[in-house]
Design a protein that fits this description.
A hairpin with a 5-residue loop joins strand 9 and strand 10. This protein folds into two domains: about 80 residues, Thrombin, subunit H, CATH 2.40.10; about 100 residues. The protein is globular, with a radius of gyration of 17 Å. Helix content is about 0%, strand content about 55%. The strands form four sheets. A four-stranded antiparallel sheet has the order 4-5-6-7, with no helix packed on it. It has a four-stranded antiparallel sheet with strand order 8-9-10-11, with no helix packed on it. Strands 12-13-14-15 form a four-stranded antiparallel sheet, with no helix packed on it. The chain is mainly beta.
């Protein structure tokens, strides 16, 4: 796991790239501007994906050796993804209202590349990465579904059942 960290403030688009050095100090001076109101910011390997749900725009970047946030892709994707979850070096975007999902990865040139897109059940309230698996959970009825992303980037279901309704938080441990 790396020692770089990105701070982002959605109301004004300020982005900071920092690094924890060998002495355990947070260091760095890079401050930059990103677009406003990014609803999801996730690390995908050594890259960072910024996504704005209302219009679907996204930005991919990485922190270079000097501690600067360098952009590699700006794009227009589908709007209204409610969940953005990283599983290993893959990313899953899920839209709760219609069950659409997108699976992709960030390639060596820093571009978001789609490997799968389809529809699952709508209404999942939680989408959680657990190791190399993903757990979808629907709070109102307690239904869950487990899957993984195979070598070709396809989402594969492995289990589904009920864990009981109304869980408000689900976190991976370890």
């Amino acid at each position: 796991m790396g020692s770089d960290v990105s701070f982002y403030r959605s109301d004004d688009g300020t982005s900071l790239a920092r690094h924890i050095d060998g002495s355990g100090h947070l260091v760095g001076t890079d401050t930059s501007r990103a677009d406003l109101n990014r609803m999801h910011v996730v690390a995908v390997g050594s890259d960072i994906l910024f996504y704005r749900s209302d219009d679907g725009t996204f930005f991919v970047g990485h922190v270079d050796g000097s501690g600067h946030l360098i952009g590699s892709q700006h794009g227009d994707g589908a709007p209204n993804w409610t969940h953005v979850v990283v599983i290993g070096r893959r990313v899953v975007l899920y839209r709760s209202d219609d069950g659409t999902f997108f699976v992709g990865h960030i390639d060596s040139s820093g571009h978001l590349v789609q490997t799968d897109s389809s529809r699952a059940a709508p209404g999942w309230t939680h989408v959680v990465a657990i190791g190399h698996h993903v757990l979808f959970y629907r709070g109102d009825d307690g239904t869950f579904c487990v899957g993984y992303i195979d070598g070709s980037g396809q989402l594969v279901q492995t289990d589904s059942s009920s864990a009981g309704p109304n869980w408000t938080h689900i976190v991976a441990i370890g």
